Amino acid sequence: LPNSEIYPSSWLDTEGYVPCDADLRVKGEERVFVVGDLRNPPAPSVAASCGDGANAAKAAVELLEG
To answer: Please, which residues have CB within 8 angstroms of residue 12's CB and are 6 or more apart in sequence?
Structure first.
C-alpha cells in the first residue's frame, strides 16, 4: 500500500496511489512529480523507483529550462 496520507486527496486515486503522466507529473499539476511505489508501477522495486527518480529529475530540468 502506498504511504500517501500526507498528500492532498485530490491527488490520489481510489486506492491511494498518485496518478501521473508519462513525464511522472502528478495529474493536474505541472510542477509536481511522483516516483516509485506512490505511482502504482507495474513492477514495484527499488531499482524502478531509482529509475523513476532519474526520469523525474530529467523532466524537471527540461521544464525549468523551457
So the answer is: 4, 18
